[in-house]
């Protein structure tokens, strides 16, 4: 029986085709360039599988795959036989109420392709019956392929790179491999689900003990504090305080108006500064921090390039961002610049541009598995 793709949900291919057409009509961004091929008939969607998520609290309590929750559907986008992107669809686990959620053209696309090819060669998979699934643990920045044993409980996990380098070191040490970083290859050695979660549990416990609360200001500057220690490290050291005794930490607060302002400035800057746009796409955590939108350490930031419409509201992005600060999974909607919009240069005066972007306006070896749709 080998490795099996999940049955395709109704209407999924049409939703993906519509999204790809909209994205490919955009003029900028890696997602638009990737899917804007000269011959669209070469594009196809393949390998439908469900993606599940777990959080640090689940792992710290001793949980494993039984505590993983369904998150979304994922399809690989093929140009001929080469995977060039993956598309995610929101909906329920049965494939109902599907909507376009996002497109990824980053390194995990190649990692998924290589991981699937490797999985199909495993002896247990060749002689058994396994369902392909995805597994994401945002709070410690880990992605993996989950091979669900349909005939028993021998589930297999294949960690994907670039997961958090410290986590990869823990996994490699657990398997007696050299402690090299997370960029050493597209995926790590397959392992049992028990071994995988046992190796990650210290990292999850470490993530729960880190204090994300903002520090109070001392003479107009943030009080200094050590950065977060390695994920597998020892006890957290308390922050150092100025003479006069410790200060009470400020509560976690999000000023919606400040967030809206900083988000609008970030979007406008991506429209006028191509180098900043590339920074947002390649290293969103740094770009966001520069723009007054810091994210929690180790978070996963999905940058979704979209086309602006007259529906939706900026509050949707704000609410999504606040949720990301709690879950460690941020969605940043990055609108493409509409025709006719003029942005004043820095210091040139004029009004700040405020963008209203909905989540659904579309913002990116060979697979021998069946269930492929033409776009």
Topology summary:
Layout lengths: L1 E3 L7 H13 L5 H6 L7 E11 L2 H5 L8 E11 L2 E9 L8 E6 L2 H13 L3 H5 L1 E9 L4 E8 L6 E5 L4 H10 L16 E2 H17 L7 E2 L2 E2 L33 H17 L1 H9 L1 H7 L9 E7 L7 H14 L1 E7 L37 E2 L1
Parallel strand pairs: 1-6, 2-6, 12-13
Antiparallel strand pairs: 2-3, 2-14, 3-4, 4-5, 6-7, 7-8, 8-9, 10-11
Helix pairs in contact: 6-7, 8-9, 9-10
Description:
The chain contains eleven helices and 14 strands. It has 375 residues and is α+β, with helices and mostly antiparallel strands. It has two domains: 2-207, no CATH class; 256-335, no CATH class. The strands form three sheets. Strands 1, 2, 3, 4, 5, 6, 7, 8, 9 and 14 form a ten-stranded mixed β-sheet that branches. Strands 10-11 form a two-stranded antiparallel sheet. Strands 12-13 form a two-stranded parallel sheet. A hairpin with a 2-residue loop joins strand 3 and strand 4.
Rg of Cα set = 22 Å
- The geometry reads as globular
Tally the helices. 11
Poorly predicted spans:
178-184, 214-252, 345-372
For the largest beta-sheet, the strand count, sense and barrel status come to: 10 strands, mixed
Backbone structural class: alpha+beta
What would you call the quaternary organization? single chain
Mean pLDDT: 73
Count up the domains. Answer: 2
What pattern of helices and strands is seen along the backbone? EHHEHEEEHHEEEHEHEEHHHEHEE
Q: What fraction of the residues are assigned to beta strands by DSSP?
A: 15-25%
Number of strands: 14
Level of helix content?
25-40%
Whole-Å distance between the termini?
28 Å
């Amino acid at each position: 029986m080998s490795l099996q793709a999940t049955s395709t949900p109704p209407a999924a291919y049409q939703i993906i085709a519509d999204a790809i057409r909209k994205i490919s009509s955009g003029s900028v961004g890696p997602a638009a360039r990737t899917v804007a091929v000269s011959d669209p008939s070469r594009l196809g969607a393949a390998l439908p599988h469900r993606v599940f998520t777990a959080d640090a609290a689940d792992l710290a309590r001793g949980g494993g795959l039984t505590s993983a929750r369904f998150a979304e559907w994922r399809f690989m986008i093929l140009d001929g036989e080469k995977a060039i992107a993956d598309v995610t669809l929101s909906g329920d686990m049965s494939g109902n109420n599907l909507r376009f959620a996002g497109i990824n053209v980053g390194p995990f696309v190649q990692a998924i392709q290589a991981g699937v090819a490797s999985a199909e060669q495993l002896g247990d998979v060749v002689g058994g019956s396994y369902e392909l699934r995805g597994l994401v643990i945002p709070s410690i920045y880990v992605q993996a392929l989950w091979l669900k044993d349909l005939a028993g409980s021998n589930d297999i996990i294949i960690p994907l790179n670039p997961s958090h380098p410290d986590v990869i070191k823990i996994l490699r040490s657990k398997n007696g491999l050299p402690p090299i970083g997370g960029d050493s290859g597209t995926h790590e050695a397959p392992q049992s689900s028990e071994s995988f979660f046992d190796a990650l549990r210290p990292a999850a416990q470490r993530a729960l003990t880190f204090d994300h609360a903002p520090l109070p200001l001392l003479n107009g500057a943030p009080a200094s504090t050590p950065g977060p220690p390695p994920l597998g490290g020892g006890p957290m050291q308390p922050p150092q305080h100025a003479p006069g005794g410790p200060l009470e930490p400020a509560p976690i607060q999000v000023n919606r108006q400040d967030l809206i302002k900083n988000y609008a400035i970030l979007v406008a800057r991506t429209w006028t500064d191509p180098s900043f746009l590339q920074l947002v796409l390649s290293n969103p955590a740094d770009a966001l921090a520069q723009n007054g939108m810091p994210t929690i350490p180790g978070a996963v930031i999905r940058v979704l390039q979209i086309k602006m419409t007259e529906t939706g509201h900026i509050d949707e992005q704000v609410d999504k961002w606040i949720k990301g600060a709690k879950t460690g999974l941020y969605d940043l909607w990055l609108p493409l610049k509409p025709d006719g919009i003029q942005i004043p240069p820095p210091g040139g005066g004029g009004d700040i541009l405020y963008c209203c972007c909905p989540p659904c306006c579309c913002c990116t070896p060979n697979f021998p598995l069946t269930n492929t749709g033409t776009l």
